[in-house]
Amino acid sequence: MAWEDEIIGPDVASAGLHISERIGKDVAAQLDLEEALEASRYASHPYSAHPKEWPPLVEVAETRELPQMLIERYNAAGGEGTALCGIFSEIHRAWASVDNSLFIWRFDKWDGQCQEYNGEEQAICAVGLARAKPGIFVEAIQYILVIATPVELILVGVCCTSSGDGTDPYAELSLHPLPEYTIPSDGITMTCVACTDKGHIFLAGRDGHIYEIQYTTGSGWRKRCRKICLTSGLGNLLSRWVLPNALKFGAVDPVVDMVVDDERHIIYARTEGMKLLAFDLGANGDGPLTKIAEEKNLVDPREAQYGSRWSAGSRAATRAEKPSIVCIAPLSPVESKWLHVVAVLSDGRRLYLSTSSSGGNSSSVGLSKPLQRPTCLKIIATRPSPPLGVGGGLTFGAISAAGRAQPDDLALKVESAFYSAGTFVLSDSTASSMSSLLIVHRDSTIQSSLSGNFGTTTRSSRALRESVSSLHVEGRMLCAADVLPLPDTACIVQSLYSDAEAFSFLRESCEKASAKLWAKGDLPTQHILPRRRVVVFSTMGLMEVVFNRPVDILRRLFESNASRSQIEDFFNRFGAGEAAAMCLMLAAKLVYAEENLISNTVAEKAAETFEDPGIVGMPQIDGTAALSNARTQAGGFSMGQVVQEAEPVFSGAHEGLCLCSSRLLFPIWELPVMIVRGQVASDACLDGVIVCRLSSGAMKVLESKIRSLEHFLRSRRNKRRGLYGYVAGLGDYSGSILYGTDAHTGPSSHIAARKSFGPQTREVDSSDRVALNKKQRLLYTSAELAAMEVRAMECLRRLLRRSSEALFLLQLISHHNVTRLVQSLDSNSCQKLVQLAFHQLVCSEEGDQLAMRLISGLMEYYIGSDGRGTVDEISAKLKEGCPSYFNESDYKYYLAVECLERASVTSKADEREILARDAFNLLTKVPESADLSSVCKRFEILRFYEAVVRLPLQKAQALDSKVDSINNKIDPRDRDTIVAQREECYEIIMNAIRSLKAGGQSGLQREFGTSGSGSVIDEASRNKYIRQIIQLGVQWPDTAFHEHLYKTLIELGLENELLEYGGSDLVSFLQSAGRKPLQEAVTPVISTSPHLHDREAAVPSSYTKYLDLLAKYYVLKGQHLLAAHVLYRLAERQCSNAEEAPTLLQRYQYLSNAVLQAKSASSSINSTRNTADDGLLDMLEAKLAVLRFQMKIKEELELIATRLEDLPESSGSVSNDPFPQRNLLVDAELAKAAKDKAKELSVDLKSITQLYNDYAVPFQLWEMCLEILNFANYSGEADSKIVRETWARLLDQALSRGGVAEACSMLKRVGSNLYPGDGASIPLDTICLQLEKAALERFTSGVELVGDEDIARALLAACRGAPEPVLGIYDQLLSNGAILSSSNLRLRLLRSVLVVLREWGMSVLADKLGTTTAGASFIYSGAFSLSQTPAVNQGIRDKIISLANRYMTEVRRLALPQNQTEPVYRGFRELEERLLSPSSY
Q1: How many CB atoms lie within 10 A of CB 673?
Q2: DSSP 341
Q3: For 1132-1219, where are the alpha helices, taking DSSP H only?
Q4: If we measure between CA atoms, which residue out of 1224, 1286, 1235 comes closest to residue 1260?
Q5: For residue range 219-240, what is the model confidence (pLDDT) as tens digits?
Q6: Rounded to an integer, what distance in angstroms lies between the CA atom of residue 523 and that of residue 579?
Q7: Is 336 within 8 Å of 369 (Cβ atoms)?
Q8: How far is it, in rounded angstroms, from Cα 641 to Cα 646?
Q9: Rounded CA gap, 141 and 157, in Å?
């Protein structure tokens, strides 16, 4: 909020809470008339007299004689003609009729005009005035004059026109005869006329019936005007027309008076026989007239129905003459929701009646339905007649006149009476010489407490107490009426109070509705309503009686230089608070429409009295009874009683300011500032039109009063007048006792402000609290009490100023069409605006935000391109009228918006740049006050991205100037709020990047209606602007923003731009986002891999992208070693399930890249090689090899699972299995286990030991076992045994699957991978012997045809073509007779040796000839001679020849048939011969 100083915001909010509480108490204190009458049964003084030494409460303002022409006509008739009179308050006219002539003239002033209407020959018997129904007559005819004669019923149009200057709305009156609206009376003489506010005309006839005149425009056969009898049936209708009057039996009791309750839509009537009738007009007043009840015994006190509710002091029941009803009048709901009509008797008593069956029991009927339809007519309460001798000065201590039986000659003789809004005017003719007017008015003093001896104080304070005044008049009162307020005043009052809960039933014309507010008493309304005036029509003329309000009496006392004792008596009677409030009204001249009556002298005296501590009192501690209550009567201390905490009680000056402020704000405080007209649905923005609830005139009047009061307080403070002015004017808020010397004016001042208006105690420790319960202590010094009170008053003054500015703002908005201004609001904001109460607009942040939105709409209206004005014009009004809503920062903001608007419409690039720069410079001065969400969009359209970046960052810095977003010592909720505000600023920049990334600005163009510079741009320009935003953002020293920016860039896929233009904190951001500190990642690598594995931590999958970017960043910056560490961490990432885990292929890629980065780091020129680098590379290569094993094992397991799942279908034809179902079950379990293990391998990396023991061995993956053993460099006797056993299992597995051919194929594949080695990985002797035995066995049994060359070639392939190891193995086996005891097996081995020797010879030849082994075989077959080739290595040839010769001898030694050994022997021989032959092979 734009406050005057730092702590005014909490002060206004605190004062607003106090005003809300005060208004609630005032509303609750307003008693229903029924409750007050019930309480008055127990009060001994229902009436009081006005003090003689005071100015009169009621006085005659002016008397006027009757018009001369009326007197002459009456005298001409000899006093024997028919004469009637009355008052038309609606048009400020009095009327009188003499025979057939009707005279109308002004009753409030004599203007020399008295109109006479005598269009008929018959004598006038009744006259009435009705509001014209709309759409029937011309608009100039506002009222209809109803004239009844014994023959005809005539309607006459009435036109009222105002004076030329507009000050008198009733200046001219003209009557317009309406001949087409005259109907016969059918011989019925009308007694009275009653009209409703809706224009319905009812007449009562001498025949006892009630009629209605209905008139329309007339069309076709329908008559324009007709008379309808509303109270007779068909039988009565025939009797009237068929039977002559002489044959009618029974007395007729005609209605002589009718009154209309326009709020409840009820008509009350009284007859000559003193009966009271009630008729219902329906819920909306347009229904058929329905008779509800008829009461006959209203004036007979002996009727049992009155019961105990009749006052004990009522008149004696033995009175000879029966009293009659002289007046009936409806009671407004403002007075009572449960009492509906009052009847005044001729002896002065009043009867209060209700038409509701639940009337008289307020608690039994909910307030939600106070205007129930009438069902009966019963007496609820009575009021005794006013006492006689009022003119002699009835004192307050006198015994009540209602408690004594008075002689008949002293009883009141009321000839006529008038009642309106709580005031009775009675014409008393007790004295034979002259009559007097008794005026009974509600007493506003607090003297009811004096009757505490006769009843409880609570009942006495609630009892109705009335003041009685007497005026002597000449002649007799014929009638009386209220002088209604002028229309301007009435419209203002109705606009203010029509929606208040206490006055929500005021739906009549504004003049009548405002007049009924007088029923609430003078104190709540004397600041807004003028003095009440009543015009009395007597036989001698017109008399205008004026009622002096309490504030008028006080003004008159000041004008007459009353003594101090009289002023003190006034304060005592009304109370210090009420009297002080009246002093404020006089000093600030708040009395509406009568400011000219208050002179400067009176205003100064009122101000001095308000500041006089001897009169208004001083703040004190209300704890005198606290400790006394804690004492027993014997003087001992009572442990069983609670000691009340002493509370400060402020003086009457503070109370008066509270009363005055709350009454000024009451009509608007709790009500919404906006309403929706024509609303159909609940969505206020879609249905209906949003307008200000109050009229501009009402807001202006209220603003003027509030400003006057605030200006008075401020002027007294500046002049240091009185206690408030002296204390509040000592200095600023930080240097006076008003606010203390606390340096922290933030939350502490807010808390202090909220405590300003409530009970306060000094902060004491526990020992002091114990002492307070034992003895009386002085809780506050007089200076502290004074400071507390003045602080509270200062808060109220600031609230008044803020309220006046809010009213000014509402007026300004109303003048500029609210509907147009709210078009820019979204539906949510519209709904908040419609529901916004005035106190929220004044005291809450939400109200301030909505006000700012409305001001923004107002500025947009002026800034528009159609040239409606400039910012300076409207800003001057706002700064003058509501500076707390619009200050200098707002002014600069809207100047900047104006520059942006001009820049958006210019076509010159340089001019656009200058205007945008000017706007940017203005906004940099007030970043915290700018609505950046819309301003930055304008800068985006202009491609001025420097402002888009810098302004939100400046605002974020201004909002968090103390860096509380990272302060863990403050309230977490406050910290979260600050963080949210900062992020809201950051999002403006992020949205700009998103908009550029999306590739268009069309949405912004549509929103602001601009084009040109905001057109869609090409991709190169978008990339340029994005880089500009990133660079500007990185330059700003805000780490929190950098993190927000980096996250957004990653989210939008702008990783390259991030890595290229990221700031120095990018590495730390990526590290923290990846949840792995850099210090751990770059720890020197230990040579043993288990230590590295212990360092690995779990990384959530959502943070993988940050580590990936960190690795790319390191690669980009040439930091290969750090990149290798990050990539290794990604590969080793721990995951809880397979869904989040990276695939093994991804891990493989991470490790491969890590190896590459480690190699790059090792080979870098600038890098210094060390043991850690070499260890890292070795570790990564080892991890990569292990991962390859894991991937192969996973594939093997998946293959096993697939093969076993398909096995039952393919083996279904096998019938030799004795237990097929059991085998199938085992296969299914094995398949499930393989699938589960394969899934485990997909989750994370396994160690080499886990792969071997948990996966390879259990699933007999012997080939993988051999590769793992070879990788682990197994050696030694034990390891060699494991390798031999594994090979044996692998060979057995291959033999079982595909025989010797499969085993040879496997040997070629596996052996070539494991060779060369030290012999531990490939035990050739075991492999050769097992294969040769299997081949011999399978060949002999005929299971498989095994060639002589298969095993030998497989061994050669396993040794990668090296014949020496193979020949060595065969030679070793052949030399061991124990192993080869079978001659067939030895022959089998010799055949294989022959194959090896041949292969050796061909390989040697191929090397020398530069050809392949196949080519060498072709040469070896004899196609070329040896001389054609280079000489063969002599040593290798000799060795082959020697081996061939030796093995020929071995063949000859075999004890086998020659046909078996001869082919082998011949083979060796041929090999030898070819090697020895010099010419050819």
Answers
A1: 29
A2: E
A3: 1144-1163, 1171-1210
A4: 1286
A5: 656 688 999 998 876 444 444 5
A6: 10
A7: no
A8: 15
A9: 6
d(CA 183, CA 965): 86
Q: Is 438 left (phi over 0), alpha (psi -120 to 50) or beta?
A: beta
> Of all helices (H) and strands (E), which one includes residue 13?
helix 8-29
Distance, CA of 1481 to CA of 1474 (rounded, Å): 4
pLDDT in tens, 420-454: 988 999 998 876 666 788 999 888 887 543 433 33
Question: Are 276 and 325 spatial neighbours (Cβ–Cβ below 8 Å)?
Answer: yes
**Which amino acid belongs to residue 491?**
C
Strand 378-383 to 47-49 pairing: unpaired
Spatial neighbors of 1223 by CB under 8 A, at least 6 apart, are: 1217
**Cβ atoms of residues 1211 and 1267 within 8 Å:** no
Distance CA 578, CA 549 (A): 13
Cα gap 867→537, rounded to integer Å: 61
Write out pLDDT tens, residues 1383-1393.
888 888 888 88
SS3 (DSSP) at 166: coil
Contact 1030, 945 (CB under 8 A): no
Residue 1420 has what DSSP assignment?
A: I
Residue 1422 is classified by DSSP as I
Alpha helices in 243-284 (DSSP H): none
Q: Tell me how far apart the alpha carbons of residues 932 and 957 are, in angstroms, rounded to a whole number.
A: 14
What are the residues whose beta carbons fall under 8 Å from the beta carbon of 95, sequence distance 6 or more? Answer: 85, 86, 87, 88, 102, 103, 104, 105, 127
Q: Which residue has the tokens 């009797």?
A: 239
CB atoms < 10 A from the CB of 835, how many?
Answer: 12
Q: Are 787 and 737 in contact (CB under 8 A)?
A: yes
* 877 closest CA partner among 815, 943, 930, 794: 815
382 φ/ψ angles, rounded to the nearest 5 degrees: -125, 160
Cβ distance 754 to 7 under 8 Å?
no
C-alpha distance across the termini of the chain, in Å: 112
Residue 141 CA to residue 181 CA, distance in Å, equals 14
**624 phi and psi angles, rounded to 5 deg:** -65, -35
Strands across the sheet containing 341-345: 325-330, 341-345, 350-354, 378-383
How far is Cα 277 from Cα 255, in angstroms, rounded to an integer?
A: 9
Quick one: tokens of 53? 């030494």
Closest Cα to residue 122, out of 188, 212, 192?
188
In sequence order, the 6+-apart residues with CB closer than 8 A to the CB of 793 are: 653, 654, 657, 713, 724, 728
pLDDT at 644: 54
Among the residue ranges 370-384, 425-439, 861-875, 1075-1089, the one predicted with the least confidence is 1075-1089
Q: Which parts of 816-870 fold into alpha helices (H)?
A: 818-821, 827-835, 838-843, 845-863
**C-alpha separations of 492 from 489, 495, 510, 511 in Å:** 5, 5, 9, 10
For the ranges 279-293, 361-375, 1383-1397, the lowest mean pLDDT is seen at 361-375
Helix, strand, or coil here: 943? Answer: coil
Q: Give the rounded distance of the alpha carbon of 865 from its chain centre.
A: 34
H helix runs in 560-678, sequence order: 564-574, 576-587, 600-610, 613-616, 624-629, 652-665
- How many other CB atoms sit within 10 Å of the CB of residue 383? 23
Backbone angles phi and psi of 736, in degrees to 5: -120, 165
The residue behind tokens 């008198």 is 168
Apex CA 147: angle with CA 143 and CA 151, to 5°?
Answer: 150
Going by pLDDT thresholds of 50, 70 and 90, the confidence category of residue 630 is: very low
What secondary structure does DSSP assign to 413-452, as a single string?
Answer: -EEEEEEETTEEEEEE--SSS--EEEEEEE--SSGGGGGG
Contact 1271, 1234 (CB under 8 A): no
Mention every residue, 6+ apart, whose C-beta is less than 8 A from residue 1027: 1057, 1061
